[in-house]
Amino acid sequence: MAKLILILMAALLAVGEAQGAPQVSDLVSSEARLSANVREDWQTGSVVDVTMSVTEPVDGWTVELDAGGSIVNIWNAVVMSQRGTRYVLGPASYNHQIRAGTSIEFGMEIDGGGAFSLVTAEVKLAADVAGQAADAAIAPPPPPPGTAIPTPGGQRAPAAPAAPATTAVPAQAVGLGVSNPTVAEPPGAALQLAAFAPGPFSVRGTRIVDSGGRPVEIHGINWFGFETEIYVPHGLWARNWRDMMDEVRSLGFNTLRIPFSGELVATGGDVSGIDFALNPDLAGLNGIQILDLIVDYADTIGLRVLLDYHRGKPGGGPNDNGLWYGDGRTEADVIAEWQAMAERYRDKPAVIGADLMNEPHMATWGDGSATDWGAAAGRIGNAVLEVAPDWLVIVEGTAVYDGDTYWWGGNLQGVRDHPVRLSAPDKLVYSIHDYPPSVYEQPWFSDGRPLREVWDKNWGYIVRDGIGPVLIGEWGSFLETHADLTWAAELSDYITSLGVPWFWWSLNPNSGDTGGLLADDWTTVRPEVIRVLQPFLATSRPPVPLAASATNAGAVFAVTLDAPAAESVAVRFATVDGTATAGRDYVATAGTLTFDPGETRKSVSVPILPDGGAGGDTHFYLVVGDASGSRASGTAIITGD
Q1: Which of 55, 74, 127, 488 is the residue whose CA sits 20 to 30 A from 4?
Q2: Are strands 502-504 and 470-475 parallel, antiparallel or unpaired?
Q3: CA-based nearest residue to 68, from 12, 120, 26
Q4: Phi, psi of 196 (to 5 degrees)
Q5: pTM metric for this prediction
Q6: What is the phi-psi region of residue 116: left when phi exceeds 0, alpha when psi lies from -120 to 50, beta otherwise?
Q7: Banded pLDDT at 30 (limits 50, 70, 90)
């Protein structure tokens, strides 16, 4: 295949001192254009996105740039060489080929305040790579923009966008085949998966109780993404959505806190950032429809869901002003969006309530002004209860009360004199967020005050004085420093002493301030997090892993190539419901098969669950595909005899 190497060059343009999101000079030829945009700039660092558009098919590329600092994170590209702040970048394994008339994007997080500039780019033109380009439903999608956790003082720590899965792009199209297995339904009673009794929940004294009046333990975790520009939980570019939820449950968590944006409710959400080969049942759905599936599956496997209005417009962190209005929205808009969510999910057993507004940090409390969050929370909460009277109403704190500062969303000092007024007081739960010194070096970490004294003053007194329950909506850390480990140990003891429910921030690894339960590969569970949380998780009834409750053999699909390939071929696979339901009839299964040169046959085993002798045949599918665009599916029949 003949190749033509084109060199693109442009003059340097300093952008280090520019305000907002400055544009960097383009590199342009008749065959390709490179443009860069500084998405975030916080003086000592930045996030830069680069777009490469081509008019001819490309089979390989490199870009030289001056980052003006050190590249500390990169996505959709790799560093090939570095000299000072000068870098040469090359393609990831899945985007070295670019179809004519299309574009790719890559980006980086930079530590340093110098000028960023594109220097040169080299593209190798190919005669025809259109047939080899990855199909959108099989090739790993670009990762979403980074999400940042806001910290007091308006500081913002940019997150590291996760790299998508990297699988080999075959040099030739292959024919795929999948068998149609039949498996007998295993004997035994239907699996009882609920981690605690179903709702509705309510408040009795300082505890959240179930419908029978029994205290409820909530050991939860945040799974963010619906509030961002991609309108879906993050990580679906790397894993199957059901597989992630199964793992959350098997580790002992019983509730998901799911942030969303008002825009998701208003528009439905135009989704991106999904590998549809691993999540084929999400193809064609918008964001709110995907949330529907997550809520239903949570109920199937015994997880509960707390919905969290994280911001108005999609993005990272809370609203920029920290209030319940802004981003082009009014309080009436927020109420309408909450009532729409209440209407949609009020009859879903998995949903336990509404976290009315994430971190209203610029709000006041109890002063009767336009920014009085305590008063507004009563109005919004009552509007929610009009539609969903069985829900809990979760009210976070502010950042400042009577001149005393605390974490965004964590200051509840005003509750003593100005409690939130709800039409149903037994549905009110206060909530706080708390973080360690690595997120922000708050004064109490160094002025000698015991942490328990700080917590008692800001929110613990609500429980100690019998005013009501408090829920920790977010706490989390990389757990890499002695100070953070000390904070985690002391807060763990405090949680135990008060019996406070909690949600770890976060399941996602791409939270810039804290990391997550999962490592950057979205698969490995970080043991340091489990060590902190295990004492809580072990106190609830141990969950039964779905796979451990299924038959050993399961339904075995044979996946075949019609001819041996000359090089390795990566094939994605995922199960999809038919009349059989994942989590009830079988265990959702997804992943990648790699055929070595010469291999033509692999197998995928899907565990089958007992359903208590309900009878009747049911079926589900295994969908497979490779990066060349080849597709196939097989049907598994579960006989009811």
Answers
A1: 74
A2: parallel
A3: 12
A4: -155, 170
A5: 0.76
A6: beta
A7: confident
What radius of gyration do the chain's Cα atoms show? 26
The burial of 552, by beta-carbon neighbours within 10 Å (0-12 exposed, 13-18 middle, 19 or more buried), is given as exposed
Structure tokens at 156: 């913002």
Q: Which one from 474, 480, 528, 599 is the annotated catalytic residue? A: 474
359 is catalytic: yes
Write out pLDDT tens, residues 111-128: 888 999 999 888 887 643
Q: Is the peptide bond before 200 cis (omega within 30 degrees of 0)?
A: yes
* Residue whose C-alpha is closest to residue 317's, from 75, 440, 436, 155: 155
Closest CA to 510 of 143, 29, 47, 188: 143
Handedness of CA 329, 331, 336, 339 (dihedral sign): positive
Q: How far apart are CA 496 and CA 487, in angstroms?
A: 14
- Whole-angstrom CA distances from 343 to 295, 329, 349, 356, 386 are 14, 20, 13, 15, 10
In whole angstroms, what is the distance from residue 456 CA to residue 498 CA?
Answer: 11
491-500 tens-digit pLDDT: 999 999 999 9
Establish whether 40 is a catalytic residue.
Answer: no
Burial-class residue 404 by CB neighbours within 10 Å (0-12, 13-18, 19+). exposed
Q: Please give the distance of CA 13 from its chain centroid, rounded to a whole number.
A: 36
Given a contact cutoff of 8 angstroms between Cβ atoms, the answer to whether 351 and 198 are in contact is no
